User: Which sequence fits this backbone?
């Protein structure tokens, strides 16, 4: 089992970390490119950047905002995020691991603080899961990944807490450690491909929305041309009652990003 | 603010289905609004083609791609949508509404979605999904209040806007809007209300005479004046229904002495493109541009109308020349500026009743026109009260996003859409509710009527007209003397 833990902390960790980093960088860069392209398509460059950046900062540090609506959910989710960001990065043992893996280190937080944060994350994660299950609109919105994520995120915190604080038999300790390491690796590798990608994309969100309201001129004409309806825009009488035999665009022709 | 969910009785009334069953079956479309006949065969394929073509030529891919990645389904938007608060229906949660379109995007336009579809043998978009979208996207008033509560920055209004655009390209759009747009873009009169120019001139002359009688001073409506400072483009329905607003507008110009004009070539600010089609949006704005060029004006001034103002302010530069596009202003901005400069005098003793102000979503949501009308109103209304919430975070009148023009869904608008607004207005106890938007006015009047609330809905310039003071005349007799000389 020791070998597996070593593998999970070493090569597998590095692999997962690189996947996460590259994946997040990829979507970040793609989004930035998309924004630049969207702006270039448009002669009107008036984007309310000041307002959008203000909104971005307000949502990145939602200290004032979260309590206005659904305050309990807001508070729990806020604490959850704090712990999720701080403990993996700044817990002393982790800092050591980071040093061994990536080659450099940074200051760590005191163990008591890390322990408390861990407990908060565990409680908050389970609460968030339960709130999703028992809040009717939340249930209506949720996909599978929305239920899985809070529980999955809590696993490394529970096992990590047991390993760091409980006096358990060596075998149990190793088992806990293995789960801790592997679940953390799994989380990292999944981040760029699921909704947790918001950890990288959130700073761009408001800008994306702001820029998306810029419509390129002439697009409407090009759209109906592509569809083969250039003489039949939507406002003419009976615009599309007889359609051309061959459709012009096929799904595959539009490259997916 | 808390609004009780509609009762079963109200639900029945709001969602009643006045359309003949054979039409619904023929069009395979169980929606409450009327739709012109269109091709019903093979709809999913044609929807996807339209979606693909739109993604190819516009900027929506950026937003779609981003939204499918970050959407966290936190359900925070449930607290801010006046439709959901009224119905309590899960399908009315803004995020759920957006998911209708986002799921189509995910399935058909992302690599992982296409792969997953192939692997699982999922046939993809179904006709039922299209019917659901046609229903859902027109239940939303596109007021964009939910955007403020989305931590992920998802603008559900934008998703609704795109959804309606795609649907319109396959023939699904409310007949009321399509018919008006047809008249505006290719009809004989060239405006959405089908007002012929002679009728317009008659109306304006009549209004001028009226004003001379009331105010004792000649207040003209300048027509086709080349080289004027401002081209005035109100919502065209004002010429038919909002005479008081127009009189107020003209009176302001009479008092300030600035040159302005109404163009007989094109005098309609209404742009239903903002509600359902970017293509229409562009074409209608280009008509304003053509008229502005014909009359060589310096600025474009939009009347009291939310969507007309937003479509011109935020999309005129896009579609009509970028940096070189003429500046666009709203009449309230102009009046506010004149008041600040001291070129407008108002009598604070005329309007003594309790007055409140309704923010039209289209101009208040971007933070563009929020304080100006309040400062104008406070300058002459002694008894001004605010609604809660107000300003940028106001609640929609319930007729936003073009739904107010669809007369057949009035029960829906006045029981579901405007439920929160009705309670808000009732709570203020105001005599006048100022709603500087043609759509809001129509909706709010119907709302007051259907909910038995005693409050008169007026435009800002209607009230201002009562209070405006002209330096030249102290008493009407003096004018007649002047004229005799």
Assistant:
């Amino acid at each position: 089992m020791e070998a597996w833990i070593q593998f999970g902390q070493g090569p597998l960790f590095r692999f997962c970390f690189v996947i996460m980093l590259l994946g997040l960088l990829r979507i970040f860069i793609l989004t930035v490119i998309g924004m630049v392209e969207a702006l270039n398509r448009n002669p009107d460059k008036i984007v309310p950047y000041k307002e959008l950046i203000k909104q971005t900062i307000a949502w990145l540090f939602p200290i004032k905002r979260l309590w206005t609506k659904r305050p309990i959910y807001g508070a729990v989710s806020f604490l959850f995020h704090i712990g999720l960001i701080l403990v993996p990065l700044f817990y002393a043992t982790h800092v050591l691991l980071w040093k061994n893996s990536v080659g450099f280190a940074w200051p760590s937080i005191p163990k008591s603080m890390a322990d408390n944060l861990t407990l908060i994350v565990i409680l908050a994660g389970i609460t968030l899961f339960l709130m999703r299950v028992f809040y009717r609109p939340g249930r209506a919105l949720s996909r599978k990944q929305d239920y899985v994520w809070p529980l999955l995120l809590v696993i490394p915190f529970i096992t990590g807490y047991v390993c760091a604080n409980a006096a358990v038999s060596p075998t149990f300790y190793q088992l806990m450690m293995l789960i801790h390491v592997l679940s953390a690796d799994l989380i990292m590798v999944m981040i760029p491909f699921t909704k947790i990608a918001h950890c990288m994309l959130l700073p761009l969100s408001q800008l994306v929305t702001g820029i998306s309201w810029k419509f390129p001129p002439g697009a409407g004409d090009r759209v109906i041309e592509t569809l083969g309806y250039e003489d039949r825009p939507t406002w003419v009488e009976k615009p599309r009652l007889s359609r051309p035999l061959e459709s012009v665009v096929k799904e595959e022709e539009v490259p997916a990003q | 603010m808390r609004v009780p969910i509609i009762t079963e009785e109200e639900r029945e009334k709001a969602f009643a289905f006045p359309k003949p069953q054979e039409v619904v079956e023929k069009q395979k479309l169980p929606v409450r609004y009327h739709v012109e006949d269109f091709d019903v065969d093979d709809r999913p394929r044609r929807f996807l083609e339209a979606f693909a073509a739109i993604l190819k030529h516009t900027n929506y891919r950026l937003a779609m791609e981003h939204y499918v990645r970050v959407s966290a389904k936190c359900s925070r938007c449930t607290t801010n949508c006046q439709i959901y608060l009224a119905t309590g229906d899960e399908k009315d949660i803004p995020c759920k509404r957006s998911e209708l379109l986002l799921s189509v995007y995910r399935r058909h336009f992302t690599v992982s979605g296409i792969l997953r579809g192939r692997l699982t043998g999922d046939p993809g978009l179904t006709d039922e999904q299209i019917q659901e979208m046609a229903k859902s996207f027109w239940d939303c008033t596109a007021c964009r209040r939910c955007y403020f509560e989305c931590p992920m920055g998802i603008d559900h209004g934008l998703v609704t806007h795109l959804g309606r655009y795609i649907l319109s390209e396959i023939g699904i759009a409310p007949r009321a809007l399509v018919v008006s747009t047809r008249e505006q873009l290719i009809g004989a009169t060239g405006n959405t209300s089908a007002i012929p120019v002679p009728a317009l001139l008659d109306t304006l002359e009549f209004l001028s005479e009226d004003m001379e009688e009331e105010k004792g001073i000649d207040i003209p409506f300048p027509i086709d004046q080349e080289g004027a400072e401002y081209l005035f483009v109100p919502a065209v329905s004002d010429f038919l229904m909002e005479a008081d607003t127009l009189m107020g507008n003209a009176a302001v110009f009479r008092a300030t002495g600035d040159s302005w004009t109404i163009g007989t070539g094109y005098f309609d600010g209404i742009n239903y493109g903002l509600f359902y089609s970017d293509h229409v949006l562009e074409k209608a704005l280009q008509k304003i541009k053509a008229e502005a060029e014909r009359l060589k004006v310096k600025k474009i001034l939009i009347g009291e109308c939310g969507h007309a103002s937003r479509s011109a302010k935020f999309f005129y530069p896009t579609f009509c020349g970028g940096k070189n596009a003429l500046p666009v202003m709203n009449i309230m901005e102009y009046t506010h500026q004149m008041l600040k400069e001291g070129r407008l005098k108002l009598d604070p003793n005329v309007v003594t009743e309790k007055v409140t102000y309704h923010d039209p979503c289209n101009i208040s949501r971007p933070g563009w026109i929020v304080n100006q009308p309040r400062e104008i109103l406070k300058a002459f209304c002694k008894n001004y009260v605010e609604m809660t919430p107000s300003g940028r975070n106001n609640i929609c009148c319930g007729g936003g996003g073009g739904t107010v023009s669809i007369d057949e869904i009035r029960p829906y608008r006045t029981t579901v859409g405007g439920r929160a607004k009705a309670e808000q207005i009732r709570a203020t106890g105001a005599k006048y509710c100022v709603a500087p938007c043609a759509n809001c006015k129509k909706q709010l009047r119907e709302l007051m009527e259907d909910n038995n609330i005693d409050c008169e809905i007026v435009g800002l310039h209607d009230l201002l007209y009562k209070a405006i003071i002209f330096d030249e005349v102290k008493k009407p007799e003096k004018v007649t003397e002047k004229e005799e000389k």
